[in-house]
Amino acid sequence: MGYNPKSPRDTLKQALQMELITEGHAWLNALDKRNLTTHTYDEATSKEVAKLIQEQFAPLLQKLYLHFKPLYDTN
Questions:
Q1: Which of 18, 70, 72, 73 counts the highest number of beta carbons within 10 A?
Q2: Which domain range does residue 57 map to?
Q3: 27 and 16 in contact (C-beta within 8 Å)?
Q4: What is the pTM of this model?
């Protein structure tokens, strides 16, 4: 396909354009929170992000998984 995104943000933008993902703002929020947690050791921030992972980001990943799963099922 010839795609060569230069960053995670570029990857998300390309996936959105290709309609592999929807809810672009939610994906960008997940990326922002991921970046935040790599540079902070604040317990309150960690707990907030853990809650977001369970409530918002895990469903996004589940949706992406279900999108790709039929492509790899051999049954």
A1: 18
A2: 8-72
A3: yes
A4: 0.82
